[in-house]
Amino acid sequence: MLLAISGLPHGQWKKGQSGNPRGSRNTPRLRALDIIDAKLAKQIVFTEAGRRRTATALEIILRQLWAKEVAGDRRAAAVLLGYRGLIPIPTGPPEFVIEESGYDMNEPQLGDHGGRHE
User: Fold this and answer.
1) Is 42 exposed, middle or buried (0-12, 13-18, 19+ CB in 10 A)?
2) Are 64 and 71 in contact (CB under 8 A)?
3) Is 46 inside any structural domain?
4) What is residue 46's DSSP assignment?
5) Judging by beta carbons within 10 Å of its beta carbon (0-12, 13-18, 19+), is residue 79 exposed, middle or buried?
6) Residue 110 falls within a domain, yes or no?
7) Which of 21, 68, 81, 87 has CB atoms 3.0–4.6 Å from 76's, for a disulfide?
8) Where are the beta strands (DSSP E) in the chain?
9) Residue pLDDT, tens place only, 26-78
């Protein structure tokens, strides 16, 4: 049996002494899904067609997969198909409504020359 310097068997503590003298970690534990969601929701600045844009990491990933799918990459198409299964498809009424404006197409409008070219 190995004896530690204190005279106790190796790996044992004195009575009443904590094995972790600094105390336990009180930091909240993050779940893996929470970490992934936070990373995918992060806003990223990127350049597209010479213009600086901002989008979430998830949007950028989906755009890249779509570009590869259009180019014929079957693996990207399979991954995108999996994402499409996760996205809810709206089934309710449309988000916008086109209202009648009172515009009469038979009435001449300002700047309308009745089809004449002057």
Assistant:
1) exposed
2) no
3) yes
4) E
5) middle
6) no
7) 68
8) 43-48, 51-56
9) 677 778 888 888 999 999 998 988 999 999 998 998 899 999 999 999 999 88
Measured in whole angstroms, how far is the alpha carbon of residue 79 from the centre of its chain? 15
Asked whether residue 103 is assigned to any structural domain, the reply reads no
By three-state DSSP, how is residue 62 classified? helix
For residues 68 and 76, is the Cβ–Cβ distance under 8 A?
A: yes
Helix (H), strand (E) counts: the chain: 3, 2
What's the rounded Cα separation, in Å, for the pair 8 and 14?
A: 8
Q: Do 65 and 79 touch, CB atoms closer than 8 A?
A: yes
Q: Which residues contact 58 (CB under 8 A, 6 or more apart)?
A: 40, 41
**Tokens in use for 95?**
């988000």
Q: Evaluate whether residue 40 is within a structural domain.
A: yes
Chain CA centroid to CA 50, Å = 23
Residue 112 amino acid letter: D
Per the structure, the complete domain to which residue 51 belongs is given by: 32-86
Neighbour tally for 52: CB within 10 Å? 8
Domain count, the chain: 1
